Amino acid sequence: MAPDTAILTNAPAEEGSGGLFASLFNQLPRELRESFSAEQKAALREAAGRCTWGQHPTDIRLSIPLLSKRYYVVLLAGEERRSRDRIRAERRRRPLATGGNIALIVGLVTAGTIFGSLIWTVLFIWFLSF
User: Residue 28 region, left (φ>0) first, then alpha (ψ -120 to 50), else beta?
Assistant: First the structure.
């Protein structure tokens, strides 16, 4: 077993830190990974263990095939626990008014309008049949 993978498989891990630690650690150049002491690896593993997202009351994840590609949609909801500063920083980094977001909103409103119109038409025809 290579020295850089031993820490990934043999060291005790905090719950949930193994995947994040392995992902981060394996992205480092081999020379840098090999230069880490056992203490540095343990500290990195512990820090990765604190980076958990936890459970959300609403957690919907869909993978939708469309034409020749697959797209994913994620809806998470729950109590806000981020600080106001962090929310502002994330809003600057990920603005709401992007081309993709606007296209999604327009598409959802259009689909909802068409679906709603069809429902009302069916109900109207059904009501007239009496």
Answer: beta
